Here is the input.
Amino acid sequence: MKNKSNYLYIGLLGLAVVVFVYFMSKQGNLATQGNGCGVNAYSAFGQAPSGAWVDLTSAYQSETVAKFPFEVPEDLQEKYGEIKYRAYSNAVNEVQYIDAEGNKTLQLDKAYTCDGSEIYELNEKYRAVLTKDINGCEVIEYGDGEKVNVAMWADGDYSYGLICSAGMDTEEAEALIAELK
Here is the structure.
């Protein structure tokens, strides 16, 4: 009887290990953990368990956490307010601009997505959705036809995004998009 108990215990333990490994390979997505593929910039849920949003004080710190650089023009701070850096571990490098009242006026994102997938989930409706070619990248602009509120595009393994709460003149938005690296 004792031998049957041992075999049963070992069998259950083995089954538990197999179930755990299967679960982690499918739900935990071990194949893409650490490389940032499939990032949604607004939701840390469903991402690699080691990832977290971190508020930072410099572009260098943001690059260190995200594991890649994000170059933004220096003159934006004059128009859009105080700069705030954020990063999501190994996946997203974000720059926000905050006005004197504490409102976010502009948000710029660069995410390592491997396949150029969109990084924002839009729930709002916009009067105009335009597709433009800027520096060889297909950019989707959302706004009212004169101003751009949201823009998304991909370049290689990276996806980019721009959100301007008040809307940005189309020419200004397209010039900014062309500069982001």
Q: What stands out?
A: The first strand starts at residue 53 and ends at 56. The chain is about 25% helix and 35% strand.
